[in-house]
Write a structure and sequence with these properties.
The complex is a heterodimer of chains A (108) and B (116). Chain A is mainly β and 108 residues long. Chain A has no helices and 11 strands. Helix content of chain A is 0%, strand content 48%. In chain A, strand 5 and strand 6 (53-54) form a beta hairpin. Chain B contains no helices and 11 strands. The chains are: A mainly beta (108), B mainly beta (116). Chains A and B meet through strand 4, strand 5 and strand 10 of A and strand 5 and strand 10 of B.
Chain lengths: 108, 116
């Protein structure tokens, strides 16, 4: 099975900061990498699929990049509503559909 | 408007059974692969099972294989998860989600607690 890791966790940041979250796969997954945002007590929300495609309705301050084994989720200017936990997930070799352990973005 | 509504969660003793349901509206259910994903308290996301649009392809996580059964009724736009031989480690919020390789639509989740 493909293993996913994320760093850092947690991540402390301030409103207005540029934030970068990393995700690494245990083997190449080409561009089959997806990102989710989850707020406490809520279901996850799809943000980015295919490494860099923004889900409909997601603000443009979110962007994704990478291919192969190394990927990045960037928030260009952190907003108060962006404090949440972010998960990456691979969809290259399935099943299983594997998630990273999550990165919690906290208020500095 | 897309809606996925899970039901059927609750408290069950170890070794017991529970059946979860997910009612779907707002997209073409019969064309969609569907999954169950769970999240133990304070933990990350774990994919549990998925089923193809007409139910011919089904897969399970190793942690639930042989104990859980996924099914669907396209006429009722409904997804189910039969959970048998439940263990304490199955305690989690269970989400249903449409599966496009990624999970684009999610329900609000239903809590399953396995405890004596």
């Amino acid at each position: 099975d493909i293993q996913m890791t994320q760093s850092p966790s947690p991540l402390s940041a301030s409103v207005g900061d540029r934030v970068t979250i990393s995700c690494r796969a245990s083997q190449s997954i080409r561009k089959y990498l997806n990102w989710y945002q989850q707020k406490p007590g809520k279901a996850p929300k799809s943000l980015i699929y295919g490494a860099s495609s923004l889900q409909s309705g997601v603000p443009s301050r979110f962007s994704g990049s990478g291919s192969g084994t190394d990927f990045t989720l960037t928030i260009s200017s952190l907003q108060p509503e962006d404090f949440a936990t972010y998960y990456c997930q691979q969809s290259y070799i399935t099943p299983p559909f594997t998630f990273g352990p999550g990165t919690k973005v906290e208020i500095k | 408007q897309v809606q996925l509504v899970e039901s059927g969660g609750g408290l069950v003793k170890p070794g017991g059974s529970l059946r979860l349901s997910c009612a779907v509206s707002g997209f073409t259910f019969s064309d969609s692969y569907m999954s169950w994903i769970r999240q133990a308290p304070g933990k990350g996301l774990e994919w549990v099972s998925h089923i193809s649009s007409i139910g011919l392809t089904i897969s399970y996580a190793d942690s639930v294989k042989g104990r859980f059964t996924i099914s669907r009724d396209n006429s009722k736009k409904s997804l189910s998860l039969q959970m048998n031989s439940l263990r304490a480690e199955d305690t989690a919020v269970y989400y249903c989600a449409r599966t496009m390789g990624f999970f684009d639509y999610w329900g609000q989740g239903t809590l399953v607690t396995v405890s004596s």
